[in-house]
Amino acid sequence: MSTILDSAATSARIAHRSVLGDIKAVWTRETLTILRDPFSLVFSLIQPLVFLGLFAPLLAGVADDGLGFGSTLQFFLPGVVVMITMFGTSMTGANLQFEIMTGAFERILATPLARQALLIGRALKELTPLVVQALIITLVAVPFGFDLHPAHIVVGLLILGVFGVGVGALSYALAIATRKNEWAFWAVQQSLLFPLLILSGMMLPLETGPDWMQALSKVNPLTYIVDAERVLFAGTFDDSAVVYGIVAAMVTCAAGLWVGVRTVTKSIL
Amino acid sequence: MIHTQQLTRTFESGKETVEAVRGIDLDVAEGELVAFLGPNGAGKSTTLRMLTSLLPPTSGTATVAGVDVTADPAGVRSRIGYIGQKDGAGHNYRVWDELLMQGRFYGLDKQRATARADELLGTLDLEGMKMRKVSTLSGGQKRRLDIALGLIHEPALLFLDEPSTGMDPQNRANLWDHILRLREEFGTTIVLTTHYLEEADTMAERVVVIDHGRIIADDTAQSLKAEQAGDRITVTVGADDLPTAREVVAQAGTEVQEVSADGGTAISFRVDAGPVALPRVLHTLGDKGVAVNAATLKQPTLDDVFLNLTGRSLREGAEA
User: Fold this and answer.
1) Span B231-299 CATH architecture
2) Do the chains contact at A10 and B75, CB–CB below 8 Å?
3) Is this complex's ipTM strictly greater than 0.85?
4) N or C: lower Cβ tally within 10 Å for chain B?
């Protein structure tokens, strides 16, 4: 943790600088790629809709608990929101890797920007379209019997944001660690992403799974995030799952930033 | 502007410890133009990365632009400009966006950043490129944009890592025009690394030769060449004139060598200030009735200096 604090202290010494300002500056630069090429955003909005539209009816058929499509959506939609967050933020490193390769990353490293702002700004950029995506699929689901609880969704998105910054920072560190071979980034990202998603009970409930799967899901921070999102999207604040979710998000965020900032300051490009 | 004491850097690679930089003592005064010259892997870039605070030193100290690199790396970064080996501008961005963002990264307000960006586009012949995507620029344009990015905050000290690697001669000359103009107008202190001998020779006022992580020579290119290699004159004379020629040569120079050549014997010897010595020697030889069949003057390059210092040629090292 000392590296984070050290660099925060040094940036504070220059009067007009603040870590928040730096985060905003990094985020702004990253977001320009979306603004200058809005088609990519439109495309990314369609993707989760397709997923929801094709997957949820199947799940409704399998589950068939007699409560109808609305209840399936209630279970499945928070999972999709978590999934797109994981997809998006775990790719933070892929965009970074391109800029490591071309040299832009080194140029930005040589600026006085706070090191943690480099990570957080990039992760937040990946989260930006996700917020829009999450809101759109939620609104689309409403006519199909999905209960809308706006205040709860806002809290749910905040938890996802904190969690996503952690995942983004880890992805960032992975990109630096694998900068010499691009495929290694994808190999690690993919082989971690899917087990984590499945073992969180995001797509299918784990209650019916074998014991070892349930045991693994207990140590998967994503499980607590998914549980918290389900409770929140269902319109409940007063549940221990929300607290566990907040803790899991904060732990992931702190661990991700610690690993990320260490990797940035220790690595030789 | 720069003051280092016993700066070292080691890397752990597996079980091996590599000493990339082994104790560099360096002082650079304001307004100097210094080139770090050495083969690949000599420790030039590692030294540069420590001076720019991108890499923490293993031991030793460095003060850059009045700030200690270990105690306040962000402070160093805000006072210097750094132009790396690769493309600094993001390929997916527009020229103008990158310039404005770079200004913001250095804490300039929007008005100042806009003014600087406009100014730099003008100085670096990039007008009309504002809205172009960086990936569509030519190599020379990209390089000039990198310079613009490095100068947005008007640093008093600019570092360039292998600035002209891979550029064609015309673009390289153009790049140097810009660097030298910058220096003339603003008195910017410039430190660069290069493995191009000619570049260090003609452009830099001071050449710091680095090999195996140490500074092995540090002077103007001219002094280095004069002290480490020296000018050599070779005169070829017939067998009859050889004894007289030997006498004259012994007076005029040192390190005399003889080899047989077309038209007699080629006597070569080292002199100070070859261009002045050559006509004088020829005149003396003529006065004494020696018929000189051929005469050459060879002035040393920095490669001769490097060869003399290390026993290796820098050209071989650069190609490896």
Assistant:
1) 2-Layer Sandwich (3.30)
2) yes
3) no
4) C
